[in-house]
Predict the structure.
Amino acid sequence: MELGVPVTLSVPEPNTWRDLLHALDEKSGELPLKGRRVALQEYGASNPDLLKGLADRGGIVMRVPVYQWALPEDIAPLRAAIQSLARGEVHVALFTTSVQIIHLMQVAEEMGLAGKVHQAFARMLIASIGPVTSEALREQSITPDFEPSHPKMGFLVNEAAERASSLLERKRN
């Protein structure tokens, strides 16, 4: 309401694309999409499943890519982080978006270190901001150890700090 735009539908946490489609289905009688234009603000990467889900419900979808996640020109810091991971020097990894793990593993593969990075992830704490990022981790054969109680950065950092020692001990034993 800050900008004077009324909220027609509120989606409960963790606010995934699946939650959005479910909420739209529950309100389909009072909020039908058939024949309506739907502007979809994309947050760094396009979501083909969401686009299809909206179109399947009759929405005429217009993508609005506000920004795009891409590797920077200088990937030396990422390469250095991958080398640290491969050497087992990292104990905790926090992932806040699915594209982070995709890019990390893409560069690790190019460096010939994907296998060592996977081995390192098996010995360290992996925290994921929420279900979409956790799904991307699993697609890379990496199992997240936890998601925070709310899919927000502050919760992720605080809960990782609180739980890291006990979760690492349990994982390594």
In short: The mean pLDDT is 93. The first helix runs from residue 17 to 26. The radius of gyration is 19 Å. The chain has two domains: 17-68, 76-172.
